[in-house]
Amino acid sequence: MPKEMLAPDCLSPRALWLPAATSGYYCDQGLEILASFILETLQSSSDVTAEAKVQLKRDILRILDYEHPYTEDDLFDRIEKVIFDWYLQNKEPIPRSKNPDLHR
For a pLDDT cut of 70, what percent of the chain falls above it? Predict the structure, then answer.
């Protein structure tokens, strides 16, 4: 996958998860780092409803179940919607330090 598709400001769930799931190499520390970042960022935001936070956590945990890879669109669509709705309220980049364990 081209690096530009995995740019930090492109947090599409499909860009983060689907290539790993379809390639058979699903368990990945980078995936866990990015999933944690999305979850922590959106869980701490007052711009995300309590209901969306519960569903987001459930969806991300399901996707991270490496023993049973999930490749259907519905979970990714819901996660993408939460990210997009959050972005409409928070258009500035999220300041964070470089993670030396993230190689994407």
Answer: 74
